[in-house]
Every structure is written in structure tokens, then in C-alpha cells.
Amino acid sequence: MVDAPPYKFLLAIDGSAHADRAAEYLAQYAALLRPSEVHLVNVLTLRLASLLTPQQKDLVLQAGSDSAAARQMLDAAGIAYRFHSELGNPADRILDLARLLACDEVVVGSRGMSALDNLALGSVAYKIVHLSPVPVTVVPNPSDASGLGLADGGRAIHRILLPVDGSEPSTRAVEYVCALRGARISHQVRLLNVQIPITSGNVRRLVSQAVIDTYFHAEGEEAMRGAKAALQAAGVPFKEDIQIGHAGEVIVKESSQRGCTRIVMGTRGRGALASVMVGSTALQVLHRSEVPVTLVK
């Protein structure tokens, strides 16, 4: 039997507390996932580099200083890594390096300094998430988030909220979760389907609440059918839930109430999850979530 190659993470760092939070998450989780290889990348803009020094040597030294905390955490976890210093547009260089190294996943903090400032809400994060060919995990702001929560009474456990709607990206998010079944950490998966509420008073006057509830249940069951079959085939235990409301609000609320340690979801979907990457839903989940959010294209 041939051993599987290491799972490659690309971790964007800049010396900020937010990037260090992403490194802390990766140091905790990567060691439990499977044999992993981490690539640290620090990107300095041309403008910032010119303020520091015209010499490439100083650029490398500055990048090395910015990576010190991340290196310490990965060293303590026994995770192998390589460091890359890049100069240019942050999103472009991160994406280029991810492709060049054939990385399996990109990990970023929700906010950072300089090149990574306003990551969760600005153009850098949007470009990375929108254009990345591999999953992107955004780790939340350390001032807003609780503990990463991968330990439960001394036992490592990973509680995943998996919103699904039957779309192709949603299906690939399910495949991502199924691939974790061989990890050295216990997983608990909660499938979630969010149905758009009926706001028309005319409909409610003509159709009883019981009929509406039956409709939502049938639609939710159909949307989760493929995900349930895939998880069952992979031997991944799960529970399921159908909720009615605005997708972003429901996803964040469910994650908090269920004590989830991560949200895994597709980049685009149908119905309540439509425009998840180009509208307010994605921004709401990324901005409000107190746990890492993995977006799968």
C-alpha cells in the first residue's frame, strides 16, 4: 500500500495577531488531520518594500521576523514547513504560489496588517476565495473569537457545520469533509439546509402553515439527499437539520449554538445559499463566525 502524499497547506502570514491566530489553528489541526506539509508565505507590497529598503536582503529579513510566531507554533506541533518571501500584489502572489506548489488548501487570518489588512471584508480575501482553485479557510479575528475549541475534556474533537443545498460546490464541500474520515481526530458533522422563508401574506392566507412546513421539509430532505448518501458511504457519522431563515444568520447561529469548531461550505449554491460568495451571505458568515470557515469551490 502506497502512503498518501502529505496534505499541503499554504499559510499567509504578516506578523499580525490575526495571522498568528491562523497559524495557531493550523498548528493544532494539521497535526491531527494527516501527514501535512505547510508553506508559510509573507507578501510585501512594492510600496512597503520601498519604504523599508531597496535591498532584497532586508526584505527577506523583515519577512523572517514576521514569521517568527508562526514558526514557533508549527515547530512545537512537530509540523514540517517551508518559508517563502514574496514581493508584489498579495492576492496574486498567494494564488500563484498555491498553484506553483500544488497546495491543497489556503489558510488566512480574518484580518491582518499592511498587505493583509481588512482581509475578511476587502478585495484581497475576496480575490483569494473567488479565484483559488483549492479550498480556503479563513480563521476569525482573535479579539472576537473564542478558543479554537479542538479539545473536549482532554480529547481532540472537531465539530463541523456543513450547510448543503445540493449544488455542485455544496457537493464538493461534502467530499472535502468525507476526505477527513482518516484523520487522527474525532469528527462530528451536522448537516444543515436553510430554506428561504415565505414572506408573502397572500400565500399564507391561501396555504396553511402545516402545508408550508411539509413543503420546507420535503425541499430540505431533497437538498440533503446526496450529502447524506456520501457521508454514509464514507462512514462519517452526522446529524441533520432543516432551518428556515436568512442563510448567513442561520449558519452563524447554528455554529455557535452547536459548539462547532469549523464551518465548511460551498462557494456558491441554490436558493438560500445562492450568491454566497458575491453577496452579503458570505461576508456575514466570514465577519460574524467565531470559528474558522472553509470555503470549497
State the name of the first-level CATH class of the largest domain: Alpha Beta
Helical residues, percent = 40-55%
Order of helices and strands: EHEHHHEHEHEEEHEHHEHEHE
User: Outline, from the CA principal axes?
Assistant: globular
Query: Stretches where pLDDT falls below 50 for ≥5 residues?
Result: 113-121, 272-279
Q: Give the helix/strand class.
A: alpha/beta
What is the CATH architecture annotation of the largest domain? Answer: 3-Layer(aba) Sandwich
Rg on CA atoms, Å: 20 Å
Number of strands: 11
The proportion of strand residues reads 15-25%
Q: So how many helices?
A: 11
Amino- and carboxy-terminal Cα gap: 30 Å
Fourth-tier CATH superfamily name of the largest domain: HUPs
Number of domains: 2
Q: Kindly state the mean pLDDT as a whole number?
A: 79
Most strands sheet: 11 strands, mixed
CATH topology of the largest domain, anyone? Rossmann fold
